[in-house]
Recover the amino acids of this structure.
């Protein structure tokens, strides 16, 4: 399965997710001060991990674009949405903060899945 993954698509998706997420938070006006180089590196690793996982799932289940997007939505509802709602419930995170992060996760999942499912 790992040999069937298009690693150029994974790399492209990683960079696209990083740029899209940065733009998303810039539009929201929630970027908190100066970004340090280690934060950029950590975010690229996070995006690469997510991109690789999605590429693996799309490849393993031989998903085309439509079903892959459904997978992205299901993953979003099953993980980020559940985790972020839990942070609101148990850690008193403001709903606007959680909603902002939920939107970023949805954007990333849809973008990454689009790239890795179309570019196989």
């Amino acid at each position: 399965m790992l040999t069937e993954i298009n690693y150029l698509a994974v790399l492209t998706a990683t960079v696209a997710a990083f740029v899209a997420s940065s733009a998303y938070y810039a539009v929201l006006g929630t970027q908190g001060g100066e970004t340090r180089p280690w934060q950029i590196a950590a975010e690229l690793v996070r995006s690469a991990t997510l991109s690789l996982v999605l590429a693996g799932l799309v490849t393993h289940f031989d998903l085309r674009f439509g079903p892959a997007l459904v997978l992205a939505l299901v993953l979003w509802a099953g993980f980020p949405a559940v985790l972020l709602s839990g942070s609101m419930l148990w850690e008193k995170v403001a709903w606007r903060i959680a909603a902002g992060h939920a939107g970023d996760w949805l954007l990333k999942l849809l973008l990454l899945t689009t790239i890795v499912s179309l570019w196989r």
Remarks:
- The chain has one domain: 2-118.
